[in-house]
């Protein structure tokens, strides 16, 4: 299976993105990565990994990988990460792949989050690309303090995001 039109560019992670004052420079990168992993896990993401890149392969400090079994699940992981971190004052520089939901990339500068369907994860083999990275036990790491999640009813009434 080849790449799907509109999917994020797999090499986009190598583009330098300026950080905003409310971005990862304002909080510890590891806490941001652990929080993104935790939020993906809450939305039933599978194969959730946080990787600390080595000095020789450093394009960002941390990469978060998570798989979702369908477009709606990948999109739900994105919405959870985006809305909960936004509520905590954290903004990502950009997001790609939202229209298709095959692979969604959120770039926080020091942390890049990849949310992929299994076929995309296998095809692009980001796990292999970052095979020399140190795996972090994100469940044991401190997280960003998040405001309470809005209920579905509150999100529908006032909108989250």
Task: Characterise the protein shown here.
There is one protein chain. The chain is built from five helices and six strands. The protein is of the alpha+beta class and 161 residues long. It has a six-stranded mixed beta sheet with strand order 3-4-5-2-1-6. The radius of gyration is 15 Å and the shape is globular. 37% of the residues are buried. Residues 11-27 have low confidence and may be disordered.
Short descriptors:
161 residues, six-stranded mixed sheet, single chain, alpha+beta, Beta Polymerase, domain 2
Give a short overview:
The chain is built from 5 helices and 6 strands; from the N terminus they run αββαβββααβα. The chain has helices at 29-42, 71-87, 118-124, 126-129, 152-158; strands at residues 46-52, 62-67, 94-96, 103-107, 111-116, 134-136.
Task: Describe how the helices and strands are arranged.
Layout: H1 29-42, E1 46-52, E2 62-67, H2 71-87, E3 94-96, E4 103-107, E5 111-116, H3 118-124, H4 126-129, E6 134-136, H5 152-158
Parallel strand pairs: 2-5
Antiparallel strand pairs: 1-2, 1-6, 3-4, 4-5
């Amino acid at each position: 299976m080849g790449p799907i039109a509109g999917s994020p560019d797999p090499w986009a992670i190598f583009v330098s993105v300026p950080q905003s004052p409310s971005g990862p420079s304002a909080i510890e990168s590891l806490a941001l990565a652990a929080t993104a992993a935790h939020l993906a896990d809450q939305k039933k993401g599978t194969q959730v990994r946080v990787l600390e890149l080595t000095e020789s392969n450093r394009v960002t400090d941390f990469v978060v990988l998570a798989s979702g079994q369908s477009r709606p699940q990948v999109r739900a992981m994105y919405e959870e990460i985006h809305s909960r971190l936004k509520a905590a004052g954290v903004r990502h520089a950009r997001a790609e792949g939202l229209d298709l939901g095959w692979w969604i990339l959120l770039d926080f500068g020091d942390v890049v989050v990849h949310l992929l369907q299994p076929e995309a994860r296998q095809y692009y083999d980001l796990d292999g690309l970052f095979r020399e990275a140190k795996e972090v036990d994100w469940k044991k790491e401190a997280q960003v303090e998040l405001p309470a999640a809005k209920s579905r009813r509150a999100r529908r009434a006032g909108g989250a995001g």
